[in-house]
Amino acid sequence: MRSGGSALSWRRWWRSAGFAWAGLVYSYRVQANFRIEVWAGVLALGLAVFLRAPLAPIGLACALVLSLELLNTALEALVDLASPGLHPLARVAKDAAAGAVLVASLGALLVGVTVLGPPLLALVR
């Protein structure tokens, strides 16, 4: 489907933003992991605000995990559409996408411990 109008059109931008929002809403409703990751991100950002720790690394780590989870959801849907039956390559595609989310989640955990750990320890002491 061709998009109508100028690339700088507000109407076109709002239409595109609507499609993106629909993808976010779908993923939140259907994917339990996405919901968990959203709330873990909210908790991490809230803790960063409370501890007066830098928000940028926490926000970027959260955005990376959530973005990869959305891509994982999209890839799973495409694989299911293209290969409704069991196929070894379909499994590889799904597992690799899930692995990308896992790697990003472990990286986000490392960022969280590094950025939030020292101020949290100082508060406890």
TrEMBL record:
InterPro entries assigned to the protein according to its UniProt record, in alphabetical order: DAGK, DAGK_sf, UDPK
Major site of localization recorded for this protein: membrane
Coiled-coil regions, chain positions: none
GO molecular function annotation: kinase activity
Pfam families, alphabetized: DAGK_prokar
Subcellular location: Cell membrane
TM regions (residue ranges): 34-51, 99-124
Assigned keywords, A-Z: ATP-binding, Cell membrane, Kinase, Lipid biosynthesis, Lipid metabolism, Membrane, Nucleotide-binding, Phospholipid biosynthesis, Phospholipid metabolism, Transferase, Transmembrane, Transmembrane helix
Keyword Manganese: no
Domain of life: Bacteria
Membrane topology reported for the UniProt record: Multi-pass membrane protein
Family designation: Belongs to the bacterial diacylglycerol kinase family.
Protein known as: Diacylglycerol kinase
